[in-house]
Structure formats: C-alpha cells, structure tokens
Amino acid sequence: MRVAYQFPGQGSQYPGMLRHLPDHPAVARTLVEAGEVLEENVRELDRAERLSSTTVTQVCLLIAGVATARVLMEEGAIPDAVAGHSVGAFGAAVTAGVLDFRDALQMVRLRGCLMEEAYPRGYGMGVVTGMGEQRLLSLVESVQSPDDPVYPANFNACDQIVIAGSITGLEQVFAAAFREGARQAHLLDVSVPSHCPLLKGVSKRLAAALDDITVREPRMPFAGNRRGRLLRRAEVVKEDLALGVSHPVRWFDATSLLVEVGVRLYVEMPPGSVLTRLATNAFPEVRSLAVDDSGVRSAAILTKRIQKEA
C-alpha cells in the first residue's frame, strides 16, 4: 500500500472552488451528473453567499472531491486506500466504489439539511492547538453543562483537537485553554456542532436513509472516521458514514495507521490543503500534496511514480 487519497471536510471550502477544478472531461461529466441529481446549475453553488449554507458547502465538497479523484484515476493514478475527513468520507466512499455518486449526493444533501435543522443558530465548532488530548478533555469536562454543552469532535493531530457545542461553551473552553498555555483557539467556519452526541438524531435518520440505497464492497481499504481503522466491508463503511456525524473523528489514528501499513504518499483532493498540512507535520517521512496546490497532472505523475517504487 503506497498511496492514499484524502478528501477534506467542512471548513476547507472557498468561493469559486468548483470553478477551480481541472479542465478535464471527467470534471465536466461529474458536474453534469450532479446537476441532474440536484436539479440546479451546480456551477452557481460555490458562490460566497451559497457557501454560507452547511448543506450547499457539503454538496460542493463532495462534488469537488469526486470530480478530481475521477480525473486522477482516468489518468491511471489509482489509490491504494482512501480516507475522508467528516463529510469527505462520502467522497472517499464513492471513490472506493461503495456508494454510487448519485446516491452520495442525495445522502450528503440530506445530511446537511438535517444538521442545519437540528441546530440552526448558537452552535458551532472550534479548534484548539498546542494542548494534549487529556488536558483539553479535562477543560471540556469542566465547562460542560446542560445549558452550554461542549464536546470533543475531531482528533486531527496530537496537539490539534476540534471541539463542538454551543458558542458560549466553546468560548469558555478557549479562555481556559489560553490560560493553560494553548497556542491557538478559535471558532471554525462551521455553523453546526458536528461529531458529538448533539447530532445523534441526525445519525439515526441518516442510517435509515442509507439502508434504502445499494452499497458495494470497497475496491480498496477505507479509513473510517469513528474508530480510525481500515474498513473493508460495505456494511461497516455504511455504518461509519451514518454514525460518524455524531461521534468524534479519529483522523490522526486513521492516518497513522495508513502510514504503518505502508502509505508513502498522501494526495488531498480539492478544496484546500488542510489535510496536507496535518500529514506533513505528523509524518515527515511521508510525501503529502494537495491537488489545489500542485495541479492534477503533477499529482497523477507522482502517484504513479510512488506506486512503481513498491
């Protein structure tokens, strides 16, 4: 196992992200397909005012990731494994052959709508950098209350953890974290409290919807969010997609495991390079690149070169 494709989650979006995709027939086909499912002009979705919607943002992330992965694979750059952060897991599942792209679009749109409906205001997510897991979890526990719930959400790196909950609760944790020596603590561009028990109801409804679609056995290992393990069965991937929204993302565990089993190149699908920076910092022995930075041609060439070295 040499190459893993990474699919980013919410927070990586930027206006124009779909218009910056490679000029390639696979991208054009993906945009047409998405437009047929969503029944609108998807080229208008990545405008700044539209990206203020969680639902639109998540749909755009899926489209961008799948379109770029299709380009790379049509150029002969086939990954050995896939990993998707949060909603990026749906793009990873499509690339692994578990979900049909059309079904994934429906599921991601439903996921975003349910999340927005559950907590329309006063909630969100924030990141704390420069504190270990146990220290931060103690601070979260000390702040936690029925009126201002706050929970750990994404374990991105040894010293970078995302928390979710009420804005008031998040700000209390930030203040305590700075007093304890945290380097950074701030809100993210996410308006819902993802990956915590507040979204158990969303997981339940998403699981029911996923039960109504066809899933296929993955063509390659899929790095799960909930337990940070490699998943090789369709039903287990489906469960991870449903439960992931209400459980913390064990991103550091998943990417560490991929390195342990031989991954030597991480290629991040658009938009952005958040996951590339995480991988570069955590695994200096592994090459990491973002297609948004390097271009799709360079990513394809390097992917095939690394795999030939196996």
UniProtKB/TrEMBL annotation:
Keywords: Acyltransferase, Transferase. InterPro entries: Ac_transferase_dom_sf, Acyl_transferase_dom, Acyl_Trfase/lysoPLipase, Mal-CoA-ACP_Trans/PKS_FabD, Malonate_deCOase_MdcHsu, Malonyl_CoA-ACP_transAc, Malonyl_transacylase_ACP-bd. The active site is at S86, H195. Its EC number is 2.3.1.39. Residues 7-306 form the Malonyl-CoA:ACP transacylase (MAT) domain. The keyword Electron transport does not apply. It catalyses: holo-[ACP] + malonyl-CoA = malonyl-[ACP] + CoA. One of its GO terms (biological process) is fatty acid biosynthetic process. The keyword Iron-sulfur does not apply. Belongs to the fabD family. PANTHER family: MALONYL-COA-ACYL CARRIER PROTEIN TRANSACYLASE, MITOCHONDRIAL (PTHR42681:SF1). This is Malonyl CoA-acyl carrier protein transacylase.
